[in-house]
Design brief:
The chain has about 475 residues and is an alpha/beta fold. About 40% of the residues lie in helices and about 20% in strands. The model has no long low-confidence stretch (mean pLDDT about 95).
Length: about 475
Amino acid sequence: MSDMTNNMAVRNPRTGANDYEITITTAEEIETLALAARAAQVNWLAKGLDHRISVMKELASVMAANRDELIAALSIDTGRYAIAAQEVDAIGRNIDKWAHVARHTEEQAEQNSMAIPSIAFRSQRKPYALLGVISPWNFPLLLSLIDALPALIAGCAVIIKPSEVTPRFAEPMRKVIDQVPGLKDLLIYIDGDGSSGAALIDHVDMVCFTGSVRTGRKVGEAAARNFIPACLELGGNDPALVLADADVDRASSALVRGSVAATGQACQSIERIYVAQSLYDEFVEKLVEKAKSVQLNTPDIHTGHIGPIIFEKQADILKDQLDDAVTKGAVIHCGGEIERHEGGLWLKPTVITNVNHGMKLMSQETFGPIMPVMAFEDDQQAIDYANDTEFGLSGAVFSENKNHAVEVGSQIEAGGISINDACMTAFISEAEKNSFKLSGIGASRMGPEGYTRFFRKQAIITNTADAFDVSMLDEAHSKP
């Protein structure tokens, strides 16, 4: 909650205490920062790709030198250590990846028109001068930079508004940026709430948002009013299909991990599991056994498998979905209770059966370590179940026959389909994909398009013959 001094208290997910404070960046301050960023971007672009890549590699180097401080802040933000370290360590690899993509993504070469051979044409790229990024609380550092890194290499300046739920990491990031010559006015972190995010959209040329459908609609509407492009990565309710010819042991292992990794607080988490009737009992037994082996990382943040529920309001959503399911006849086999440890909120991996699509658990995004399991009679019913949702982010299919799995997976209305594993979009980013339905809109943040989306295309068209003059308008030219 904000007070009259424009400050906002921030909750610690492990202790439940408000032990940090941010000052909300005002619209006037954002306007000043945007003007400075635009001025710096002109020189940033003029210095060329090699210079930009060298500066970004220096950023990676300085982040590595300040690794401990970044991890410490992220650990408090999210209540988890191992994933915080993974977020920090991933940035250098991501910079190398985008540098490679940029160097191997060529502009259109000049060629002659097939319709009029005397006309030559080519396209060249013009980066958006200023990108606005509004990032979420579940992977605060990684998702603040997932769009910013390729945009900076493309020649954009970037202003980032991270979630007010997990803002602590931004201060050590600002210190890092200050140590990289020439980057201070090009990569800017601002603290703030929803009002700061709304103001940011009014001062940028493109916006990238990761978060809920509800907020994503507001971002998209604001971008449309300003006639700027928006890339929206929104919610998911991702299905997994365990077909009749699947390896049950493999599927159950992958789906426990895919459902509870990061406490289920990942957009690509598996949130609905559909199993062939012939495998159902065996699968549920193995799933429960493996789910019970997952340990909370309390009281020691350096042990166990999963951390606390980061956002307090998310715990209310999880409890509401579980209560709704049980009231309607669902059966909980393990987990199922929001627990309080050290003042934080926790949920052990929860396997739940006797579910149906009339339950909130099956129709809404869950964002927690909950595994509802339903049986299906045949492949078509499984596909119908998977597609009975307003979301379409990703999904998974398990079968001993890869071709069979791909055939079924291709009929799921979602952007990324993992075959014989789960959540593969968290591991690789080379494959372009788009979100379906309410899970988002805009160009892919994966593959080459994750870089080229930050450019407008400009056509250069040259007439190598005589110029067309007014005589071409003569009616005689149009006679057969």
